[in-house]
Amino acid sequence: MGMADAGVDLRLGVLDQSPVASGSTPGDALQRSIELARRVDELGYSRFWMSEHHAMDTLACTAPEIMLARIGAETKRIRIGSGGIMLPHYSALKVAEVFRTLHALYPGRVDLGIGRAPGGGPVEALALKRDRKSRSLDDFPEQVEELLAYFYRSFPAGHPFGGLRVSPEMAGAPDMWMLGSSMWSSAAAAQFGLPYAFAHFFSPVHTRAAIEAYQRGFLRAGRQGARTVPEATAAVGVICAETQEEADYLHSSVRVLQRRIRTGDRRPVASPEEALRELQAFGDIAVEEGEWPRYFVGTPAVVGRQLREMAGELGVGELIVNTIVWDQGMRLRSYELLAGEFGLVG
Question: Whole-angstrom Cα distance, residue 106 to residue 311?
Fold first, then answer.
């Protein structure tokens, strides 16, 4: 058993990827993300993160920072953030300016989740590269150091960027998180003394190993912006409904989505009817599972018990919930049922 008590209710956050439902447009998906943010703010969720993906018909959000500027104005108390900004595509100074601006607009509410992955395929990664002349440029650790130095004005003496002022300058800074789905990201989060979010719904095999390695290896570094104690979370897939049968029916859309992604098919999210036809014709594709499933599917009581058990085993006090279903009403209802199960208070 980990540090958290499995009997204690968790804090729950939200990761939204702006999934595009078949029969709708990417613009519709972005509007639905705004509607979802308003609702989970009312329900008492802890944070609302938006992902960064590129050149996909399935997921509409390519610029989480733009969505966060709108969502901050549409919500009252929930933390807003990136899940995450794919840092290798950008200069550290520009990311610092963007999130300083969000922090100035919504002080005390902004998370900057950073990741190393491209958020798309190899062609998109090439098109987004800062330096296309270099085939193997990987300066992610140096970017993280630079980003922290901009936020906390902690460049070493004589550094050429030491005199730069990142506007808008004001007290405090965004809360910076390391995101990942590998043991490498776990080690990096521990090294920098940052909180760590593991993408369990994407890569469930190493969830326990990555989070426990982070907790063991966490460096109580004296650098500004570092935590004094480790804080970890995992992003999990959840579909809640009044009955197991309905939850399984809604889950068929995700089963097909997983099948399509592994065959290079990036079409919008299928309706359950369309998904069941496709599954009947082609079947599921084998996906690697870990100690816990990528998606927790069922009634609130069933899902609640499973999430509490997972959090207790991992020693975490918060989980981040990602829900993809075809129907927006059913997506909102899933979050409502989960909030009721965990006694969230808006």
Answer: 29
